[in-house]
Design a protein that fits this description.
By secondary structure, the protein is an alpha+beta fold. It contains four helices and 13 strands. β7 and β8 form a beta hairpin.
Length: 220
């Protein structure tokens, strides 16, 4: 009689003995298969959202009648790769030299420069800047920056202007919440790239050797 009752229970509840084991299996499988870490993402530089500015510094005994200048890139291209898991990046940036803009009011304000420069003066300054003894735009149509080490705390790379390369480093400010944005700045010199700053009137009006670059590069 007891055997018959046990047999009936097994018929009515054939899976009861296995329910607990079945419930635990998915949890064990989930623990054994962690989500893969995201890989590096590559972004194309957005020319419209990227800002790259260079400041020159006036010098000479007649510097009171001269200006510090604001030079802006209007054609910036390239790629940025960001590896969030490793906290590392690579940058390959190109600036079109013939399209550089000089002393536009909005660029001067971004660099904290007072006063405006008229259109005729802008054209003359730009002509001097593109000359063979300055940027030599006819022979060197691009400036480039290629990173050699790039992280959230420090970026180092090779900056090439007028065919001459210089290693530069800076502390970046990163924003990866939507796409990729990297801001920074550093000082450099005309003579780092094989030429002297512009001068006139036997040096009474001239640009100092020092230059300052400030930028925000946006990738999408």
């Amino acid at each position: 009689m007891r055997r018959s009752i046990f047999a009936c229970l097994m018929v009515l509840f054939p899976t009861a003995a296995f329910a607990q084991a079945g419930d635990e299996a998915p949890a064990e499988a989930a623990e054994a298969a962690p989500a893969p870490a995201p890989g590096p993402a590559t972004f194309k530089v957005s020319n419209g959202k990227t800002s790259l500015l260079v400041r020159t510094y006036k010098g000479g005994v007649m510097s009171a009648v001269a200006h510090d200048h604001a030079i802006a890139s209007t054609q910036t291209s390239g790629t940025i790769t960001w590896d969030a898991a490793a906290g590392a990046c690579t940058m390959d940036i190109t600036v079109d030299v013939p399209s550089l803009r000089v002393d536009a009011a909005q660029d001067r304000r971004k660099l904290g420069l007072d006063g405006d420069v008229g259109a005729d003066d802008q054209a003359e300054i730009r002509k001097n800047m593109m000359a063979a003894d300055q940027l030599n735009a006819a022979a060197h149509k691009t400036m480039t920056f290629k990173s050699t080490a790039c992280s959230a705390s420090k970026v180092t790379g090779s900056l090439t202007i007028r065919g001459k390369s210089k290693t530069v480093s800076f502390t970046p400010k990163l924003d990866t919440s939507a796409g990729f944005s990297l801001s920074g700045g550093f000082d450099m010199k005309h003579t780092d790239f094989g030429f002297d700053g512009y001068s006139a009137a036997l040096g009474a009006i001239r640009n100092e050797d020092k230059l300052t670059m400030k930028f925000t590069v946006v990738g999408e």
